[in-house]
């Protein structure tokens, strides 16, 4: 290797910029986590270590309600969007590439491209007319909206997994007397499972921390955890919110770790 | 053109009957992978499809297995038309070239798969799996993941998995090509043994002519979507129907000449007696290097030649000879204990062909 390729890492100032980016990214989060253990009521003045804000947050009925609601929505949305995404992935990868293929990808991934606020407004108007027509006020709207925008997050890892799958395995199953359904059940689905679980977790996390669409779609009193926190912070900033955030962060980190382990292991 | 050099219709039962099958893959431009192929494969036969890359061997197997429908023609299994039957309804199993073992299952589960899909009772599945594990000597590894065993072992598992449901026909698509030379030789013997023990009809694909000659009961030589010749190894080797078959199987010499009565005057002017079957005009002759003998120049009927090169191959030495007009002929001579053959480059020698060794292979 006589002349080295262009390397960004060798530009002057690269290290400084890199460090600054990391500081900007992680310092605020680090402080948030740190102050969730503050003994005092301030999110800025450290008064010693204490775990008191965690039981306090859990003791707050509104927090508990919002948490349970968020978990119901996120699990339902993850389940529904992953099922739909699996079908979409099977439908889009198991055939010859056609001219319309790119269009189909774009449509499935629409929520990634259309600004979230636009989707939120559209859903608000759409659901408003349904609410008027049916009188139904329940969680269904939030679950439907979350399911829809979670589809691309579930779809991408499933499709990646399907595209890497050896098609002769399905041929071999058919050769060994498996009906198309048995082939799907005993070969395709188990091999797809890591992708499906990964997709489901991404969808779950995406739903769990959504603010914009939830704000627009929710009916009165249907606070999710993020919308509740937003409401709290507008009034006064309490360490309670730090504690909830830290727990959410912990959950997300665990799920992302599992996600990476699942998608990395290619057998 | 379908030269089936098997006129003796023996009373043996036919397992797979391929009847005027063509396969054209659509696309730009369309590919004719099989062109009006007819062949009858007998029960309990080790039948080999041999041909260069892209000649349609895999396509023919896939049609027999049911992975692709034929564009035209029909396939029969034991007299029953199976052309429209899906693969899971055909009592035919395949050993895939890349083995296609299920990576999420153990060795034993892979072998059990076909039996389970057939809905066999648990006890029977277990017994058959044990029997198969023993047959391919994989009992010790039955609980391993298929990704945790060697290539040769995977090959055995693929074989056991395909044999376990006891199909009427086993299709093997170049199953040995991924193995190293020594393992390959071992598996060749193993495959022959398994075929004998199970009594299943084997249809084996290879592009290795030596493998085809040593293993097969009969060989079909294919080229460009057609079957050129079907016959036992000796017949294919010694009586090739055309130049392609002669050239593809083993090494050979070609001589061009003109038919004159019941002999051929080759380009060097020599006359060679050969059964012409009524052919006239220009013909091509073939003779294997091991059927060419060197002799004293003045021997009766000897062709005059000069040794242009001697190439040592261990057990034998290839002697390159040039006739008067420059026609090249290779003779295979057995090496002497000294490694020499008793001839020198540039030496003038006589050469003759073993009786019956020279064949006409076309114009
Ligand atoms: N699905 C397909 N679509 C289009 N053409 C195909 C398809 N499958 C095979 N072919 C073409 O048909 C011809 C025969 O292919 P086939 O795979 O049967 O050859 P083969 O004899 O098995 O060769 P090899 O020894 O390389 O495996 C080739 O020209 C190939 O390109
Ligand atoms: Mg092939």
Automatic annotation (TrEMBL), chain A:
Keywords: Cell inner membrane, Cell membrane, Membrane, Transmembrane, Transmembrane helix, Transport. InterPro entries: Bact_Polyamine_Transport, MetI-like, MetI-like_sf. Residues 67-262 form the ABC transmembrane type-1 domain. GO terms for biological process: transmembrane transport. Signal peptide: none annotated. Its main location: membrane. It comes from the Bacteria. Pfam families: BPD_transp_1. It is found in: Cell inner membrane; Cell membrane. PANTHER family: PUTRESCINE TRANSPORT SYSTEM PERMEASE PROTEIN POTI (PTHR43848), SPERMIDINE_PUTRESCINE TRANSPORT SYSTEM PERMEASE PROTEIN POTC (PTHR43848:SF5). Required for the activity of the bacterial periplasmic transport system of putrescine and spermidine. This is Spermidine/putrescine transport system permease protein PotC. It comes from Sedimentitalea nanhaiensis.
From TrEMBL, chain B:
The complex is composed of two ATP-binding proteins (PotA), two transmembrane proteins (PotB and PotC) and a solute-binding protein (PotD). Its EC number is 7.6.2.11. The keyword Nucleotide-binding applies. PANTHER family: SPERMIDINE/PUTRESCINE IMPORT ATP-BINDING PROTEIN POTA (PTHR42781), SPERMIDINE_PUTRESCINE IMPORT ATP-BINDING PROTEIN POTA (PTHR42781:SF4). Keywords: ATP-binding, Cell membrane, Membrane, Nucleotide-binding, Translocase, Transport. SMART domains: AAA. It is an enzyme of class 7 (translocase). Belongs to the ABC transporter superfamily. Spermidine/putrescine importer (TC 3.A.1.11.1) family. Pfam families: ABC_tran (PF00005), TOBE_2 (PF08402). The gene is potA. The keyword Protein transport does not apply. It catalyses: ATP + H2O + polyamine-[polyamine-binding protein]Side 1 = ADP + phosphate + polyamineSide 2 + [polyamine-binding protein]Side 1. PROSITE patterns: ABC_TRANSPORTER_1 (PS00211), ABC_TRANSPORTER_2 (PS50893). This is Spermidine/putrescine import ATP-binding protein PotA. It comes from Sedimentitalea nanhaiensis. Part of the ABC transporter complex PotABCD involved in spermidine/putrescine import. Responsible for energy coupling to the transport system. Residues 16-249 form the ABC transporter domain. SUPFAM superfamilies: MOP-like (SSF50331), P-loop containing nucleoside triphosphate hydrolases (SSF52540). One of its GO terms (cellular component) is ATP-binding cassette (ABC) transporter complex. GO terms for molecular function: ABC-type putrescine transporter activity; ATP binding; ATP hydrolysis activity.
